[in-house]
Inverse folding.
């Protein structure tokens, strides 16, 4: 089964973007994943093909019109389409590796990319959009956020990563940050590779990596160890 993403955007030319190269590029070529950008403007009905309007209550910026977006969503998400409908949004729940895994196990997603001040609240409620944020900062549009979400999803699809086990030890998969990595040369600018890693003692190596992982997580992301803190 192929993961199918339909992306509603005012800038379809931004897709597949960086996902056209390397691992994701090959997954798209093989058809393991599909990305279909759809231009929201194609669903505008007035003669100026407008997609946005001034905010009710006044203030700066423009808001994406609910009627135009609803028509676009309804056109790509027909009855029986079980794909989750996502809205990239700084107000959304922060994206996690767990949500990425869940999405990758499903049939795909319909992803709405906001622009301007965002989208009309009634549209979010009426089409039951799941708001997803990629971090506590504001982008100028949802497209880079959608590309990041799709990057994370495509790399965990079956068969996409060369070494099947290389995904499971990574940061967040274990609830912790990953240990540091080293490779040759043995000495780089007077710095040596930690001796344990070249000892050949696999048990000691595993223990060292786990200890490093725990230490890093404690220092940098204590919230991962104790979500209540
Ligand atoms: N007025 C909004 C910001 C709008 S930014 C606010 O203050 O919350 C324009 C669009 O960029 C948003 O609709 C959203 O689709 C996208 N976007 C911006 N930052 C994002 C983030 N951190 N995560 C996901 N999408 C984001």
């Amino acid at each position: 089964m192929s993961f199918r993403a339909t992306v509603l955007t005012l800038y379809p030319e931004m897709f597949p973007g960086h996902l056209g190269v390397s691992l994701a590029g090959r997954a798209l070529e093989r058809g393991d994943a599909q990305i279909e950008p759809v231009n929201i403007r194609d669903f505008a009905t007035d003669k100026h093909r407008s997609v946005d309007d001034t905010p009710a209550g006044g203030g700066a910026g423009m808001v994406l019109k609910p009627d135009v977006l609803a028509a676009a969503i309804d056109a790509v998400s027909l009855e029986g389409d079980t794909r989750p409908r996502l809205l990239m949004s700084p107000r959304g729940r922060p994206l996690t590796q767990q949500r990425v895994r869940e999405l990758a196990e499903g049939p795909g997603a319909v992803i709405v990319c906001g622009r301007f001040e965002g989208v009309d609240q009634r549209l979010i409620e009426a089409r039951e959009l799941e708001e997803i944020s990629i971090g506590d900062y504001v982008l100028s549009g949802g497209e880079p956020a959608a590309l990041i979400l799709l990057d994370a999803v495509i790399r965990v699809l079956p068969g996409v990563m060369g070494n099947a086990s290389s995904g499971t030890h990574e940061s967040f998969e274990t609830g912790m940050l990953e240990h540091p990595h080293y490779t040759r040369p043995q000495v780089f600018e007077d710095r040596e590779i930690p001796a344990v890693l070249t000892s050949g003692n696999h048990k000691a190596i595993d223990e060292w990596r786990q200890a490093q992982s725990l230490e890093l997580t404690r220092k940098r992301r204590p919230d991962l160890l104790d979500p209540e803190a």
About this structure: Strands lie at 3-9, 33-39, 52-53, 63-64, 85-94, 108-113, 130-133, 187-188, 191-192. The chain is about 30% helix and 20% strand. The pocket of S-adenosyl-L-homocysteine is lined by residues 88-91, 113-115, 117-118, 133-135, 137-139, 141-142, 145 (CB under 6 Å). The chain has a mean pLDDT of 96.
